[in-house]
Amino acid sequence: MDKIELQRRTKIFAVNIIKFTDGLPSKSSLNIIVNQLVRCSTSIGANYRSACRGKSIADFINKIVIVEEEADEAIYWLELMEESDLVDPQLIRSLKKEANELTAIFTAIGKTAKLNQKIKKSGVINKSEIEHPKSEIK
After folding, report:
1. Are 92 and 82 in contact (CB under 8 A)?
2. Average pLDDT rounded to a whole number, residues 65-86
3. pLDDT digits (tens, 9 = 90+) for 114-125
4. pTM (two decimals)
5. What is the pLDDT of residues 32-41, one digit of tens each?
6. Under 8 Å between Cβ of 44 and 67
7. How many CB atoms lie within 10 A of CB 65?
8. What is the C-alpha end-to-end distance of the chain, expressed in Å?
9. Using CA atoms, how far apart are residues 94 and 107, in angstroms rounded to an integer?
10. Is residue 72 within 8 Å of residue 105, measured between CB atoms?
11. Residue 103 contacts residue 71 (beta carbons within 8 Å)
12. DSSP codes of every residue in the chain
């Protein structure tokens, strides 16, 4: 998936969250969760676009970490809605699936960027670092 497709996908996710939450009843506890969910869900695409304009690998990595955190936060709020019986789990199944996929995508992008940064800095890399980059990259 290229960056344009991923930008489109993050925007579609935000739009779907907005449409979903606009159809929910107004209830004080639900309103708080909805506000948090809309905030982090719309932040995913905005921060990814910013990461794509990063000035350096380090800048890109810093912004991608934010994107990953926001995607994971969206999962949290969706789970909270579900587990507190504020919404029917069937209504959020596809949203949770997409939030999980986006989190996995951005986690992988972050790991790859960190590995590329390490390669660029050191100029050398051994096979074990490629096979197990998490244990080698701080």
Report:
1. yes
2. 97
3. 998 888 888 765
4. 0.85
5. 999 999 999 9
6. yes
7. 17
8. 26
9. 20
10. no
11. yes
12. --HHHHHHHHHHHHHHHHHHHHTSPP-HHHHHHHHHHHHHHHHHHHHHHHHHT-SSHHHHHHHHHHHHHHHHHHHHHHHHHHHTTSS-HHHHHHHHHHHHHHHHHHHHHHHHHHHHHHHHHHS---HHHHHSHHHH--
Written as six digits, the tokens of 126 are 């051994």
Residue pair 69/108 in contact by the 8 Å Cβ criterion: no
* pLDDT, tens digit, 9 for 90 and up, residues 14-72: 999 999 999 999 999 999 999 999 999 999 999 999 999 999 989 999 999 999 999 99
Q: List, in order of start, the domains of the chain with CATH numbers.
A: 3-136 (1.20.1440.60)
CB 7 within 8 A of CB 52: yes
